Amino acid sequence: MIDFKEFDFVAQNAHLCFGALMVFVPTYIFGPGALWYAMALFLVYALVKEFWYDERYETVEVRGSSLKDFLFYMLGAALGLVVYFGVPLLKHV
To answer: The whole model's pTM is what?
Structure first.
């Protein structure tokens, strides 16, 4: 069985990576105009997932802090923006 500290580390890395991908990929495919749509949709998804769905359907053993999970989603979204706008080789022209 995995201990809580290690499980939390893996979970937060997953939230971070998922957040980055959910903002970076649509913006890369559809251009900078899709950025606001991607951010808005992802914000709604993260709020519903963490503060409604997880509170009702996750088991006590795997449920951590909803706020912490949500913040890692948003940190990942910010990372996606940094990658999109900060790495010239990946910019969609």
So the answer is: 0.86
Whether 16 and 76 have beta carbons less than 8 Å apart is answered as yes
User: Which band of pLDDT confidence, cut at 50, 70 and 90, is reported for residue 20?
Assistant: very high
Q: Alpha-carbon distance 72 to 18, whole Å?
A: 9
**Could you list the residue range(s) of the whole structural domain that residue 31 is in?**
4-90
pLDDT at 90: 56
The Cα 56–Cα 52 span in angstroms is 6
The count of structural domains within the chain is 1
Contact of 11 with 58, CB cutoff 8 Å? no
Radius of gyration of the chain (CA): 15
